[in-house]
Please model this.
Amino acid sequence: MNKRYSQMSEFELKEEIKDLREKVQQALSMGNVSEMAVYERKSTMARAYLLDPSQFNAGEVYFIKGDDEGGPLTIDFLDGVFAWGTRGSSTEQVAFPISLLEKRD
Model:
């Protein structure tokens, strides 16, 4: 039976990320874009569990890696490894894994 990412040790998470990276490469070489996207999302989630959520604070503004069109995310609160907040001028709440957040100067 597979463990949840929240139950894995740091070593197990890093091994999982390594395995997922290999699966991404295999899917890419076979031209299976949808499978590749699934493995990339799983990797994003596993990386989130390697980060410390206390390093992300309500009221702070972050950008989403790889998404320059949606605007920055202002964090309202954190729930586990997900940051909930609003983007740009929208009032709709959205959530992102903290592994996708980055500060820009």
